[in-house]
Amino acid sequence: MAILAGSELRAEAPDALAEQDTVAAVASVQQHARSQSQVARRQNEQRAARDAQFRTLQLPCSAIGAVFAGVDCSAIVLSSLAGATGYQVLANASWNLHFQLGAGVAAALLYLLIGRSSGFYQAPELFSSGRRDVSDVLQHWLLTSLLLTLLAFLFRIGIEFSRGAIICFLVMALGSLLASRTAMRALLSWSVRSGRLQGRRVIVVGPRDELAAVDQGELLRRFGLTEVERVALPELGNWSLPVSRRIVAALDESLRVARDRGAEEIVLALSWNDTRSIELIRDRLRSSPLPVQLLPDQKVRYLTTNPAFSVNRSFSIEVQRTPLSALEQFAKRVLDMVGAAVLLLGLLPLMLVTALAIKLDSPGPVLFRQRRSGFNAKRFMIFKFRTMTVMEDGEKVSQATEHDPRVTPFGGFLRASSIDELPQLINVLRGDMSLVGPRPHAVAHDDQYGQVLAEYAYRHHVKPGITGWAQVHGYRGATAQVELMKRRLEFDLWYISNWHLGLDVIILLRTMFEVFRRRNAY
Fold first, then answer.
1. Each residue of 80-112: pLDDT tens digit?
2. Strands 367-373 and 317-320
3. What are phi and psi of 384, to 5 degrees?
4. Does pTM surpass 0.85?
5. Which of 489, 418, 426, 425 is nearest to 452 (CA)?
6. In b/e form, how buried is each residue of 20-48, taking b as 16+ CB within 10 angstroms?
7. Residues 444, 373: Cα–Cα separation, whole Å
């Protein structure tokens, strides 16, 4: 019995050891998973903290020059009032406040114009060491004084200003300019250290060796950029199939990150000798409407920082510009807001009657909702009056055809008259759409046409519209053949390349006539 018991114990020992090993392995895997989740959680917290910090920043980098210029102008005007007025009060017990204020404003404008022409208020100059501040201020103020004296002589107003008042004004203004420049530089340094200064939010893309040479502080000081994320590219120059796929995946990831993080620009850190990589990466990034900038590589950066060479420190290459400037985007947005608000108020009775008719006509919700791709391929939910018995919004969406059995009796009238599109005025007010632009398609159709038509993604360079250049030329309804979609795409791309505010007005007017024609509306 003892022998049997011993043999059973010996037989069970390996099983127990194996079970212990398994438990230990599971515990190790769980610990590793917990560690990975903790790392991911810390990264998410850090990212959220950075985003919260960006939201609390008060001064954009582009406004630094204006702030410095405003402080200098204020110092000159105050010096004119204090210096000249103080001297005249002490010497003559009288003063001419209006004249001294006018002289101070004139001197401030002259100083500002001279400074702007010499680059005195450009961000890279303001971020520099400041060793030449004293000589630059002296030169600018001396030239300003000479021009101010010349103006006083030409307009014969020199007699209103005594020599003592002039000397007091010039000396006090010079001291104020030097003091304000020193104080503003100290304030600028504090703003950079405390994170109170924000440049344009960018995604930095490049191979690891070039990314390692790009410093976040240098991006802000030299280019006015704030890095929110960087994406490393693998093995540029090696264009084998596996590596090419990883490069394309990294570029697609940079586009996704740019959308998710609200980036305003994509910055490339690449070797300027690798022209093939630059061309291929640029072509891949053309699907994004964001501007793309190529930073100087390590060799070119040496030239821009070497004082022996006369090169602009903020020198870079604009690889891709945004289709609409900031002013054009603002003008288009104003037209959208005003137009959508007026149309909603005017058409509200019609929309209420339509909603009631839909409820009486067939069971189901009044509004049809579907995911669409908007500006920069960002997803949003589009609103339409329901015209069908189905609510498709998945990987496969069937386009409506003529005499489609899914269309409700009242829905056919709504589609033919385009009344079903009126709820999209809400999308315009929300900022998802514009009154005029390329018509948005279902996400499933975007994926389908994006694989067939190389330039299809360029439609996302502007906001989609309720109507568009293609629609007023009769390209409405389904696009069963790729050729039809290709023709519609040509009109959309022409609109993006030739946009102006008057074109939107023309399209809106032509849309009213196109609705009555009912071409391809079913």
1. 888 766 666 666 655 566 677 778 888 899 999
2. unpaired
3. -145, 160
4. no
5. 489
6. eeeeeeeeeeeeeeeeeeeeeeeeeeeee
7. 10
